[in-house]
Write a structure and sequence with these properties.
Helix content is 10%, strand content 42%.
Length: 330
């Protein structure tokens, strides 16, 4: 079932940016809201009626992405000045810059343990940075043939998904630092991607007006969804997978029901091992189930080689990569 959501309560209003706002993020305790925009500033707001605000300045161009880390003590931002920056929220000050991109940076995200940051840029690269050792670049992935619009860490931070104007979705292993899966995903630019909380599925949006759900363990597409008029721009799963939400250029937000089992946070590891493609159901009138052979040219091969993408990627391997990077000669 899909439904159009309309506001039915009064919202707190936060005013201060001098131009369009491009991204927002809420800290884990929901006490702070961070926003960024074309004016090149980050504003951190108290999430209450007082709307008190502090401004972080450091970028010299429009800021496209801002995000809190898992404990809410840090922010990462990405901007058109080709820089990714790290900020201390408690002290409200700049910490360090990650330098290396050769064009505008559109997306940046922390790993779940905050030890790494992933970024994607118009320079067609996805880069992995070591936060704990001065922002050193761990790896540069150059597999995209178009601008990278979005990067997302897998929930256990063992791999990174990316998408871009080349119409592709790619998944990279942070352990071996190689391409794991490649999807010829959409008929136009892919605008955004997000994992479900269990890390078994991925949702994508595109200028081709569709939303697609991908089974990462089988390396193939599950569903193509229709409901928006014009490009789809954003999509996210609910924490327990009972629904997902999509938005588009048609000014509409759609909430889609699924029959993924509702579970508590402590049971997600069990779901990661047990969830199957057969339990995901959405509105039959809006969904076209596609044969698995249409999913990807390389996905099945990658899935076969890795056998089980999720279980084979271990945190110990991530630690080794970070240690090797820290010890590498400058």
């Amino acid at each position: 079932m899909a439904s159009s959501l309309k506001a039915n309560s009064r919202a707190n209003k936060f005013q201060g940016h001098k131009g369009p706002v491009y991204d927002v993020s809420v800290n884990p305790s929901c006490s702070l809201i961070a926003s960024c925009g074309r004016d090149g500033t980050i504003k951190v707001w108290n999430n209450n009626a007082s709307a008190q605000c502090q401004t972080l300045k450091g970028h010299s161009a429009p800021i496209k992405s801002v995000e809190f880390n898992a404990d809410g003590r840090m922010l990462v931002s990405a901007a058109d000045d080709k820089l990714v920056k790290l900020w201390n929220v408690e002290e409200m000050k700049f910490v360090q810059s990650f330098t290396g991109h050769q064009n505008w940076v559109k997306s940046a995200q922390f790993s779940s343990d905050s030890r790494m940051v992933a970024s994607g840029s118009d320079d067609r690269t996805v880069r992995l940075w070591d936060v704990s050792h001065g922002g050193k670049e761990i790896q540069k992935f150059t597999d995209h043939t178009g601008m990278v619009n979005c990067v997302r860490f897998h929930p256990d931070s063992t791999c990174i998904a990316s998408c871009g104007t080349d119409k592709k979705i790619k998944i990279f292993d942070c352990r071996s630092q190689r391409l794991l899966q490649h999807y010829d995903a959409h008929d136009d630019a892919v605008n955004s991607i997000n994992f479900n909380q269990a890390g078994t599925h991925l949702i994508s949006t595109s200028n081709d007006s569709t939303i697609k759900i991908w089974d990462l363990r089988k390396g193939c597409i599950m569903y193509t969804l229709y409901g928006h008029e014009g490009p789809t721009t954003a999509a996210a799963f609910s924490p327990f997978g009972d629904y997902f939400v999509t938005g588009g250029n048609d000014s509409v937000v759609l909430a889609w029901e699924s029959n993924m089992n509702q579970v508590k946070q402590e049971n997600l590891s069990e779901i990661q091992a047990k969830i199957s493609t057969e339990v995901f159901v959405t509105n039959k009138e809006k969904v076209e189930k596609l044969p698995q052979t249409r999913g990807t040219k390389m996905g099945k091969k990658a899935a076969k080689e890795n056998k089980n993408l999720l279980s084979n990627l271990g945190q110990e391997d991530i630690d080794n990569v970070l240690d090797e990077t820290a010890e590498a000669p400058k």
